[in-house]
Amino acid sequence: MDSEEFTSRIPGFYNLSIAERQAHLARTLGQSGVANTFDTGGLDPAHADKMIENVVGVFALPLGIALNFLINDRDYLIPMAIEEPSVVAGASYAARLVRDGGGFHAETDEPMMIAQVQVVDVPDMEEAIGRLYEHKAELLALANQQDALLVKLGGGARDIEMRRLDTRLGAMLIVHYLVDVRDAMGANAVNTMAEQTAPLIEKLTGGRVYLRILSNLADHRLARATARVPKDSLAIEGYSGEAVVRGIALASAFAEADPYRAATHNKGVMNGIDAVVIATGNDWRAVEAGAHSYAAHKTGTYTALTRWDADANGDLVGSIELPLAVGLVGGATKVHPAAQAAVKLLNVQTARELAGVIASVGLAQNLAAIRALATEGIQKGHMALHARQVAAAAGASGEEIDDIAAKLVAERNIKIDRAEELLKESENG
Length: 429
Ligand code: MEV
Fold this sequence. Notes:
With about 425 residues, this protein is α+β, with helices and mostly antiparallel strands. The chain contains 17 helices and 10 strands. α9 (about 240-255) packs across α14 and α16 packs across α17 (about 415-429). The structure holds (R)-mevalonate. (R)-mevalonate (MEV) binds next to α10 and α14.
């Protein structure tokens, strides 16, 4: 790809037909065929039959491209698989605002996953923990024998941690393996390590092992992103830039302090995050579990995953931090043709780069939502998009769609029968 010519800022993309949008992507990416993979969802039943059990078909979602993303000084086109209107437009809008402030800055931890081993009926807890520490090197070596390829790629089990856990069914010894999984999501690698080393753990502790499984609270694998928006970029009709910055900071403070609001605030964050996680064939349930457990665990009360404030200059600054266990190798990312096309479109080289992009999209999505909520409300934008869908469903095409949609919104009557009437009137007149 010629990065000099490549930009994610594509004015008018919205008004193009699907074929024109695909042609534009093929031209700018220099990759013919990538965008066409999305035509039918990229997955046929024969492929699907190899992925899960009892397949009777496939289930499609719309795939849209969020524009304007500048992350660590690089432009990205963001593939988003989602059924909800306004999300792709919201992310693109917020990314344009952040672009005015120099773009997103993202950084990530090493791709370190946790595998948990639950040991019960331990005769002497102190002694058992001591013996595991003494045999740490042996345990790590045995864990690493399970995945020679991962070790060859520079990953592998790095450390073990032990902890006594008092539960209603008595004390348990919980062992954590910390495993660098490189460009994988890592579930298979760490689950195998936990299972294969369990007999040695039983021998060393004299206890009995039950569960051997990863933790989705992947808090050694955090992704962070920050953004700045000049206050003047935020001014809209009826609201000064200062007023919008204050409204967004107040929305943030509300979500930081109140779990009821934090749940919805974070849902908005996950609108962006899940859409990219799904498009790239990653496990969105794992990412959801990680995000919400982290939102509760980091302070002890469920809170917001993002934070927004005014800086000394009065401009808006925001940040996000959450676990992002996403991979580029293995799983659906490797076998789903549309996921492969989405990864090509993103042009990310490592799982960490992907995590940084996803964190930035989450921050953008949150900004789009709370900016609208703190000013004109979200229904206005929703209704404008809904009106376009109704106009198209009534048979409008090309420029007619926007004309009819504008009339429906102005009349506050976004109904298909009214759209059909307006269409007839415009055809006759
Ligand atoms: C809707 O899908 C998401 C929002 O509710 C998020 C929020 O309230 O911040 C708009």
